[in-house]
Design brief:
about 210 residues, mainly beta, 4-stranded antiparallel sheet, disordered C terminus
Length: about 210
């Protein structure tokens, strides 16, 4: 059966991933599959769409990933040494213009150029995660992508300007919470800023 499904930017295509990991790109008007790049025949663990739904980052079961056009299925990046896990969110984030992708790994956040696949920078996680932990970093772009707030798995948020990926100001730390619901309570008490609240409420279990 279908496990993930999303339309592309103009709803002319549907990106589909089955429970078994097969990836498909379908033309909506005709109801027929689009052949696309041969790499799309490999089994996958997950995919992440760009903000405009024109690109999709697909993480394959062989431990690599690649970015594809959601209209034609053509490859837009070289093979990337990124390993996406199944059912873990967030794992990656595109910049607003789709030209950069952040990958949240176990030891660091990698910032990569989509076209070349080159690593622009890495943002290390300053502590060791528990074995088997699904905790990841998270991020949010603001100011049309000119700034990015990156939060480590323990809740410390650092601001970066994205032209050179240099830090802005001091890291911001907030009290840990056992659940996303508690984060709302912390925000109401005025102990968490709106930027960090937006990251905290991104849709994953926070700060365990």
């Amino acid at each position: 059966g279908v496990w993930q499904a999303n339309f592309n930017h103009d709803a002319s295509r549907l990106v589909v991933r089955t429970r078994g990991g097969e990836i498909g790109l379908w033309e909506m008007k005709k109801g027929t599959p689009i052949k696309g790049d041969p790499a799309l025949k490999a089994l996958s663990n997950d995919y992440v769409l760009s903000p405009d739904s024109r690109k999709v980052l697909v993480g394959f079961k062989d431990g690599h990933a690649r970015i594809f056009d959601t209209s034609s299925g053509s490859a837009l990046s070289p093979v990337l040494d990124l390993s996406l896990k199944e059912n873990v969110t967030p794992q990656a984030l595109f910049s607003p213009d789709g030209g950069t992708v952040l990958f949240f790994g176990e030891k660091e956040t990698s910032v990569l150029d989509v076209k070349t696949g080159k690593r622009i920078t890495t943002i290390p996680i300053p502590f060791v995660l528990e074995e088997g932990s699904d905790a990841t970093a998270a991020a949010m772009f603001v100011s049309a992508g000119a700034k990015c707030f990156v939060m480590d798995p323990k809740g410390t948020v650092t601001a970066y300007e994205t032209k050179n990926w240099t830090t802005m100001g001091k890291p911001m730390s907030h009290p840990a919470a056992e659940s996303a619901y508690e984060v709302y309570q912390v925000r109401e008490a005025g102990a968490i800023c709106d930027y960090c609240f937006s990251i905290f409420s991104y849709g994953f279990e926070v700060l365990k």
